Amino acid sequence: MNFDLVIKGGTVATAADTFTADIGIEHGIVTAIARGLPDGRDTIDASGKLVLPGGIESHCHIEQESATGAMTSDDYLSGSISALFGGNTSFIPFAAQHRGQSVHDVLALYRERASKSVIDYSFHLIITDPTETVLKEELPQAFRDGVTSFKVFMTYDKMIVSDEMMLDILVTAREHGALTMTHAENNAMIKWMVRRLVERGYTEAKFHAVSHPAAAEAEAINRGIRLANFVGAPLLIVHVSTDEGARLVQAARTDGHPIFGETCPQYLFLTKEELDRPGAEGAKFCCSPPLRDAQTQSDLWRHLHAGSLQLWSSDHAPYRFDASGKLSAGPNPPFNRVANGMPGIELRAPLLFSEGVRKGRLSLNQFVALTSTNAAKIFGLHPRKGTIAVGGDADIAIWNPDERRVVTQSGMHDAMDYTPFEGMELTGWPETMITRGRVAMSDGTLRATRGDGAFMARAPFDWTGYKAQLPPELTPETNFGAELL
Ligand code: DUC
Ligand code: ZN
Ligand code: ZN
To answer: Ligand 1, closest atom to CA 287?
Structure first.
């Protein structure tokens, strides 16, 4: 046993178990989990610490242009470093196709951008222009190359796909083993609200929340699920921000459909009252779906605990509080001209650990599932990633469960100029990060270098336990023999 690295004496937790053991690592792979392993070339004493699978951040916007041209402040270097300091060893940002662009060119561009990353990466494609070539040639090629998930928007005039397009996309994904993700809000309800608010002079940031009613989310989640179920395709509802939305996801799952749900820290830690800050400060808290209320916060905690929502992602969408980002439409922009999104990639796991595990709302194993294992399983990375097991990548986060720190922007490693979580005191922080067997961060110091991350080709969607239930109209035995899929 010639280990390159041994992590000794820590409390190891996976999504299933918690136990005390040493971890032996060779060539970036976990090769032994046992008590009393000999020292390796390097040895880390983890007694009193938690040894967890590295986090997998599965919803973040890095070096991405929005449809209106705003660029995120984080590129793949700063974004990956910030993710690493927040307990993550891999991430899956978006590669966004804007209308008229070829998917092939988009993926080539993002592969070039991501070559700077210090942690492993993949992409979800954003599809806004599902042409015949995209559906028949480019998406199948992307799936073969290991990009096995993509997002479609049910809102935003520049991004929206019609229900008919969405059916085409869902069927294409199903055929090739991919998972569709959707931003589910009813476009017409939002536009109708925005028009009436702006016409009447209600343009401050607080009206952003008013303009995106909870009912708009529920309507679109319901429709998205219905469309997916109609063609027997899996669907992930991203950034669920309401009790009703989470209940719709849970109900579909209980009926046996491959439907998944994600929520994000802003919906559990912030409320719409933040939008009512003086001056333009409220713009810092404009995201879509918008912040909700205290009742919704406790509803979403319950849904995380109950398993109705499987993913906990940051939706890191970093637009600085200056003319490059939030204030691109001027120093006091109307709410409908503020770039949507907020940063949080470095705090996603610490927030859940401190307020979830430490405060007894979630078990440590649920924390691991929500921050790592579930993403690995849903996005085709398991068991190489998302757990600590012999044969898996040695992507490990060693946490000090007792360290207390007050969140400040100066303590963040992103390229932002504010954090919406400023001033919160959190207990439990990642102390040492190991990526494929190498120490990438320890004691607050970056040890990884630009380009250490590698592209992760992902497996197709795993249908275990789910069964596509096609309606009679799509089944030849009951539709007079029509072959429609
Ligand atoms: N949707 C996201 O997923 N992120 C930022 C903004 C948005 O609308
Ligand atoms: Zn979205
Ligand atoms: Zn997002």
So the answer is: 6
**DSSP-H helix ranges across 157-259:** 163-176, 187-199, 206-211, 214-230, 243-254
- Nearest ligand by distance to the CA of 68: 1
Cβ count near 136 (within 10 Å): 10
Q: What is the CATH number of domain 54-378?
A: 3.20.20.140
Closest ligand (CA of 183): 2
Angle between helical axes of 214-230 and 187-199 (0-180°, round to 10): 160
* Helix orientation angle between 214-230 and 243-254, rounded to the nearest 10 degrees: 20
Would the pLDDT of 1 be above 80?
no
Distance from the first to the final alpha carbon of the chain: 53
At 340, list the tokens.
Answer: 């949507």
For the residues 235-249, what does the mean pLDDT come to? Answer: 98
pLDDT tens per residue, range 290-327: 999 999 999 999 999 999 999 999 999 999 999 999 99
Express each pLDDT in 33-55 by its tens digit.
999 999 999 999 999 999 999 99
What residue owns the CA closest to ligand 1's atom 3? 315
Atom of ligand 1 nearest to the CA of 315: 4
Using CA atoms, how far apart are residues 174 and 110, in angstroms rounded to an integer? 24
Q: From atom 7 of ligand 1, which residue's Cα is the shortest distance away?
A: 288
For residue 159 and ligand 1, the question of a CB distance below 6 A is answered with no
Average pLDDT, the chain: 97
DSSP 15: S
Give nearest CA residue, ligand 1 atom 5.
341
Name the residue ranges covered by the structural domains of the chain: 54-378
Decide if 52 contacts 428 (C-beta within 8 A): no
Query: Does residue 289 contact residue 315 with C-beta atoms inside 8 Å?
Result: no
Q: Does the C-beta of 395 come closer than 6 Å to ligand 1?
A: no
Does residue 341 line the site of ligand 1, with CB under 6 A? yes
Q: How far is the CA of 238 from the centre of ligand 2 (A)?
A: 7
Using DSSP, how many helices (H) and how many strands (E) does the chain show? 14, 18
Query: Could you tell me how many residues make up the chain?
Result: 485
What spacing in Å lies between the alpha carbon of 117 and ligand 3's midpoint? 19
Select from 182, 212, 236, 239 the residue to mutate for testing ligand 1; criterion: most ligand atoms less than 8 Å from CB. Answer: 239
Among protein residues, the one whose CA lies closest to atom 8 of ligand 1: 288
pTM passes above 0.90: yes
Q: Identify the weakest region by mean pLDDT among 64-73, 203-212, 301-310, 317-326.
A: 64-73
Query: How far, in Å, from the CA of 249 to the mean position of ligand 2?
Result: 17
Average pLDDT over residues 336-344: 97
